[in-house]
Structure formats: structure tokens, C-alpha cells
Specification:
The complex is a heterodimer of chains A (70) and B (446). Chain A is mainly β. Helix content of chain A is 0%, strand content 54%. Chain B folds into 3 domains: 100 residues, 3-Layer(aba) Sandwich (Rossmann fold), CATH 3.40.50; 70 residues, ATP-grasp fold, A domain (Dna Ligase, domain 1), CATH 3.30.1490.20; 239 residues, ATP-grasp fold, B domain (D-amino Acid Aminotransferase, Chain A, domain 1), CATH 3.30.470.
Chain lengths: 70, 446
């Protein structure tokens, strides 16, 4: 199981993947926006996206959970 | 001089404008978002008005709220700073229609230069060199592919209404062009509300050099020297210097003359910047775009000329004479600006957070334009600029030496900053030699 967490305070601009998706290493899951920059959050390893903890418009804090891949 | 001015901006530039306004006896009125209530610019203004919640659309881009704040405080003039509403011709018109003095160029000049395709066409007619590129907006990838074939690869993809490097990319072939075109279109639509794209011939190993102009109240346009802005990451400037170490006196004379023609072509008034690309291999230049406002890196020009550009903006907006003899400006010495961003110094990713400690360098040759102080929180809503560290020296070697010392003295704790990157830049052989181009950051971060 891999937990993917936010690297920084940011707004969730776009949720690209959905729970239940099969993802490959490096796939874009979510796009965050902070300080006028888009920051893609990528899958770290292949598997099933069992949990997606954010929705578009959310604000995430550093180290908040974004997704779980199993 | 106006009796009072509303400063429609935030952070370091609001503070810098307020400082000159107060020195000149102009009552300074700040506007701010809920997220910025604790920043120094709010405390240093004579009066401050809350605009609304943090997101720019609810605060600094909320034109009706800004105009209401001007009415409520009886402001006689409005200074837009840079970014936000500064290059919005409709807003400038609304300010003038409300009976205020707009501290900026005529709205028609903003409009003519705001569309990069229109600006290119206009400049070409005015005899200012432009790169091979689009004469009409591109809206589909097929048309872009045909256009690129006639321009020749590599091409630069840009948003016609764009700025700040957003959506820009270089395409070396058709596959890259199709991918870059779609990205640019979606970002242009989202950030600028206009999906029109242009292509331009990409010049490898170019320097980004811009000319500061001032359109005087009597209609004359003068040039106050150039700034080299080639140190960039993600097509955004990180460090600037004047004079440019890559521009010969002959090339400088041609660039300054072209910048004056550019300003004259649009009836420019006030402070503006004509951005050019210098082809270092050919020793030639092309027009890139004109920024119809005060530029972020204006302090380096102030340091070598001794001219307060914000003061001149106020004087010109009021129809008056500038504070110096316009035809006898001769810059002296060398100045550098290092942009201190809240970002990690290796990958340059934004790092909002709370500043726990702030100790800035000082001294007769050091100027720090800071937007924050210890205890302030850097939020994710705005760009990551914390401060501009500017240093002067009688020549480039001494300016570099002082910059190294100033960077070492600048201590910010609580948030990550790019200060370690600046230390590396100043220590690098490439920057030290002066023979660098817009790819220098990519070479320092392979």
C-alpha cells in the first residue's frame, strides 16, 4: 500500500483519476495549484487507486493524505 | 501631485509604492485580502480597506470592490502596481471614468500592447524588429502545424493574451507542437479568459533584455537603459542586472532607439518596459512584448540612475514635469536584483508557510524590497515573491561581491526560500563570466 501525501499547502485544482482506477507508476492523479503554479501529483508505483481523499476546490496542508494505491 | 492614492496591489510592490507616496506627502490607501491583513504594506499605509476573501477573484482582481474602496476613502488617484488589474484596459477606463487619476499609461496603449499578436504587428509597422511568427491568432492545432511549417522549427508557443510564462513552451517538431498547443490553449483559457495562441520562431541561446521607457507628459518618450533578465526558471525571471553584460554599446543604442519608437507608436505615457530577445550568436535583437506598467525589476534601473520611477509615474500622471533632466540621463555603475521566492531551491516548487525569522541585509549599497516580515504567513493564493534583494556596485565585479555577502546575510526561517540557489548562481562560473543566456538555470540544475 502506498500513501500519497501533499508536499505543500495548495488548492486542489483538478482531480484526474477516480477511485477504483488501475494506475501506472507516474500517472497523474490530481493537479494541485499553489502560488500560480500547477503541480501534478503522480502515482508512486502501479496498482489500484483504493482511496482518493480530496475533491476539486479543497485546500490541502503539507503532508495531508491525497490518495492510497494498493 | 495627487492628494491621495489608492494602491491596488499587495506585498512588496504595494509597500514600495506606499513608501514613495508618503515621502511625497501623498496620502496612501492600501487595499488587502483577508489573507494579507497582517502584512507590512497594510500597516504602513495611512488607511487600509479590506477587499474580501483571499482568492484574487474576490480581492485584488475584484474591480468593483477596488473602485468602491476608492470612493469610500476619497482617493484621488489609483496606482495598480504590476499584475492583477495593472494591464486591464477596461479597469483603467473605469478608474478614469470614476474621476480618479490613473497612474499608468492610456487605456488604448494597454489595449494595443495587451494582445501579443496585435503588438507584434504594430511593432513591425513601426520599424521595430520582430521574430518570424503569427500575424493572426491560432485557434486550432491544424492551423498551428501549418504555421510552424512556414516559420520553421523550433517554435515558441504562447498565449496571445498571456504573461508570466504561463502556458509557454518550445516545440522542436509537430508532435511537441500538438501537445504544447493543447496545454497552452487550456491554460490561456483558464488564466487569461482568451484561448488565442501565437507561434514565434524560437531563438536558442538568447538573452532576455528589456528597455525601461518613460513616456513624458509632453509626449516625448525616453529610454532609461536596459535590464538583463536572462536568469529564468519556467520562463519566469529569478535575477536581473543592469547594464546587460551581453549587450555592446552599438547594440544598446539600437535597442534603446527601437524601444522609444515602440512607445511612440502607441502614444505611451508613464513607465513601461519593452522586452526583447537578444540573439547572442547573431548580435541582433527582436521585440518580444511590452509591459504597460511598472516592472518588478525596476529597482536596478533606479539604483544606476538615481531616479525614483514611482515618483515619475505620479508626476507624469498629473501632467507635470519629471524630477530630472530627461535628455541627460547617464546610468552609472552596476546593479543586480535577486528575487527571493518561497520555494524549494532545488526543484523550485512553491513552499507556503509561516515565517518564523526574518533578518535582511542592510548597508549603503543594499536595498531590500520586502513584502513580508517575521510572523507573517505566506499563503498559496498569490505568487511566491517574498522580497527583492538589490545590490549596487561601481562595476559588475564589485556588485557581484556585495551580492554574495548580502545573500549570505539574508536569513529567513520557517519557509523554504531560493536563497541557496542565489548563492550558487553568484558562485557559478557562467554567471560570473557574464556570458549566459536564458538556459542558465537549466544548466545549473541538469
Amino acid at each position: 500500500m502506498t500513501e500519497i501525501r501533499a508536499e505543500m499547502v495548495a488548492n486542489v485544482w483538478k482531480v484526474v483519476a477516480a477511485e477504483g482506477d488501475q494506475v501506472a507508476d507516474g500517472d497523474t492523479l490530481v493537479i494541485l495549484e499553489s502560488m500560480k503554479m500547477e503541480i501534478p501529483v503522480l502515482a508512486e508505483g502501479a496498482g489500484t487507486l483504493t482511496s482518493l481523499a480530496v475533491a476539486e476546490g479543497d485546500v490541502v496542508q503539507e503532508s495531508d493524505l491525497i490518495a492510497i494505491i494498493e | 501631485m495627487p492628494e491621495s492614492v489608492l494602491v491596488a496591489n499587495r506585498g512588496e510592490i504595494a509597500r514600495r509604492i506606499i513608501s514613495t507616496a508618503r515621502r511625497l506627502g501623498i496620502r496612501a490607501i492600501a487595499v488587502y485580502s483577508e489573507a494579507d491583513a497582517g502584512l507590512p504594506f497594510v500597516a504602513e499605509a495611512d488607511e487600509a480597506v479590506l477587499l474580501g476573501p483571499a482568492p484574487p477573484a474576490s480581492s485584488y482582481l475584484n474591480a468593483p470592490a477596488v473602485l468602491a474602496a476608492a470612493r469610500a476613502t476619497g482617493a484621488r488617484a489609483l496606482h495598480p502596481g504590476y499584475g492583477f488589474l495593472a494591464e486591464n484596459a477596461a479597469f483603467a477606463t473605469a478608474v478614469i471614468d470614476a474621476g480618479l487619476t490613473w497612474v499608468g499609461p492610456p487605456p488604448a496603449a494597454i489595449e494595443q500592447m495587451g494582445d501579443k499578436i496585435n503588438a507584434r504587428n504594430l511593432m513591425e509597422r513601426a520599424g521595430v524588429p520582430v521574430a518570424a511568427g503569427s500575424r493572426e491568432p491560432l485557434t486550432d492545432a491544424g492551423a498551428a502545424v501549418a504555421e510552424a511549417a512556414s516559420i520553421g522549427y523550433p517554435v515558441m508557443i504562447k498565449a496571445a493574451a498571456g504573461g508570466g510564462g504561463i502556458g509557454m513552451s518550445v516545440a522542436a517538431d509537430e508532435t511537441q507542437l500538438r501537445a504544447g498547443f493543447e496545454t497552452a490553449r487550456s491554460r490561456a483559457e483558464r488564466f487569461f479568459g482568451n484561448a488565442a495562441i501565437l507561434l514565434e520562431r524560437y531563438i536558442p541561446r538568447a538573452r532576455h533584455v528589456e528597455v525601461q521607457i518613460l513616456g513624458l507628459a509632453d509626449g516625448r518618450v525616453i529610454a532609461l537603459g536596459e535590464r538583463d533578465c536572462s536568469v529564468q526558471r519556467r520562463h519566469q525571471k529569478v535575477a536581473e542586472e543592469t547594464p546587460s553584460p551581453g549587450v555592446t554599446p552599438q547594440l544598446r543604442a539600437r535597442m534603446l532607439a527601437a524601444a522609444v519608437r515602440a512607445g511612440e507608436a502607441v502614444g505611451y505615457r508613464g513607465a513601461g518596459t519593452v522586452e526583447c530577445l537578444v540573439d547572442t550568436a547573431a548580435g541582433d535583437f527582436v521585440f518580444l512584448e511590452m509591459n504597460t506598467r511598472l516592472q518588478v525589476e525596476h529597482p536596478v534601473t533606479e539604483m544606476v540612475t538615481g531616479i525614483d520611477l514611482v515618483e515619475q509615474q505620479f508626476l507624469i500622471a498629473d501632467g507635470g514635469l519629471v524630477s530630472f533632466e530627461p535628455m541627460s540621463v547617464s546610468p552609472k555603475g552596476h546593479a543586480l536584483e535577486l528575487r527571493v521566492y518561497a520555494e524549494d531551491p532545488s526543484r523550485f516548487l512553491p513552499r507556503p508557510g509561516t515565517i518564523t525569522g526574518w533578518h535582511e541585509p542592510s548597508g549603503p549599497h543594499v536595498r531590500v524590497d520586502a513584502g513580508y516580515a517575521a510572523g507573517n504567513t505566506v499563503t498559496p493564493y498569490y505568487d511566491p515573491l517574498l522580497a527583492k534583494l538589490c545590490v549596487y556596485g561601481p562595476d559588475r565585479a564589485q556588485a557581484l561581491e556585495r551580492a554574495r555577502a548580502a545573500v549570505a546575510q539574508f536569513q529567513i526561517t520557517g519557509v523554504k526560500t531560493n536563497l541557496p540557489f542565489h548563492a550558487e548562481l553568484l558562485a557559478s562560473q557562467e554567471f560570473g563570466s557574464g556570458r549566459y543566456d536564458t538556459s542558465i538555470v537549466a544548466r545549473l540544475r541538469p
